[in-house]
Fold:
Amino acid sequence: MKILYNLDDFPSDIQSVVSIGTFDGVHKGHQLILQELKKQTSTHQKSVVFTFWPHPKKILSNGPSPKLLSTLDERLELLEKAGIDYTVVIPFTKELSELSARAFVEEILVKKLHLRKIIIGYDHKFGNDRTGDLAFLQRVSNEFHFEVQEIPAQYIEQTAVSSTKIRKALEEHHCKEATLHLGHYYSIAGEVVKGKQLGRTLGYPTANLHISDPDKLIPSDGIYAVWAEGSFGIRPAMMSIGNNPTIPGASHSIEVHLFNLNEDLYTQQVRVYFVEYMRAELKFSGLEALKEQLHQDELHAKEILTHHLQP
Structure:
């Protein structure tokens, strides 16, 4: 997949079959659109995803914007796995949001991307006046010589999925539901940084993760069975997200313990795939009680992961 950050870089001799959207998480609903996009390509017509960064709501909303299911890099990786030929990433600005639907089609899709067909999900709208819907596209398609295809509502609704629903599932500890809707495990990745190193004294050393993207959604606090991926390959693990209430003065942290691995991971990147929520954070009477609970958590996590494939 070729990634373009400038519309002028799109090849002049290629026509496009395009879908537009944020594609946050590239969930099963998105995947239906991408599959159809790929079916429509040919030697001279390539599949193109036109997407934005940052999320439009971050620019247009007066309140807080939603946390994201995928960073830009994660989104691009998922689109590449879907077999898309080109992804065009355009900065979402207030100026872009003020472009009319007609100007967007003529100036960007037709003149820059040489549009021959556009595929949209049902009820999709674009342009500053929100008039860029199916009816509008059908009206201007003859003028600009392109075809329009809408993914019918019942196809999207059969997946019963939306980015909002997935966010809610992760906020309520429903990892299995999130996996079902995404079509893959939800994951976060971060650099391993130094923590209090208390886990070592308990026999459960942890990699303390720093997540650099403040917009990335972190699942709710608790203890999880996870797969972890890094320089060590993919290994079974358990993760703690929270304030470590048994430890005086502890702050909120994201820590993962990899089973049967005693390796210095500082400064390395580790990705964690959420498989199943195990329990809430608890405050124990002391370190011995905490150590015993960690042992039970390890047994529980290992049992869970025997029933779930690696990512």
Summary: The chain has eleven helices and twelve strands. The first helix runs from residue 28 to 39.
